[in-house]
Amino acid sequence: MTRSSDIPATFDERSVLLQMLHYVQDTAVVKVRGLDQDLARAAPLPSSPLMSAANVLNHLRWVERSWVQTDLLGGVDDRPWSAERPHAEMEEGSTLPIEDVIELYEQEAARTRAVFAEIDLDVVRRGDLPPEPVTARWILLHLVEETARHNGHLDVLRELADGTTGD
What we know:
With about 170 residues, the protein is mainly alpha-helical. About 60% of the residues lie in helices and about 0% in strands. It contains 6 helices and no strands.
């Protein structure tokens, strides 16, 4: 897979934001792709027993689905986490084959980009969390920030797993 560039074809707001989202999404996949099952599930940080490459990528999938499909569009709330299992999306990443985690993330990422390619960025979300009204623009920027932050985690996890480094 060739990672998308962070430079958009045009510099209108939507093109810039979508290109940055696509770039950080592709970066997350690049950081995980090529790891075998054991390395993808390895959680080398004693203080974070769920912090593995597979779990972080699965978390990113569910974060996108939650913010876009549930909170923004008002769709069915199928989030796996609950009060009893607040990190269920992370736990799920440890049970799925790494190829499935990657494929499911790529599918959700494409779906997210398709929504933001069409939606009015000033539309206020329909879901019920958080209680403050936020716009589609804010959600899009939040997803760029969330994914970029977790890409830092994935970068460290990948280096610890097999020594692979890169931008």
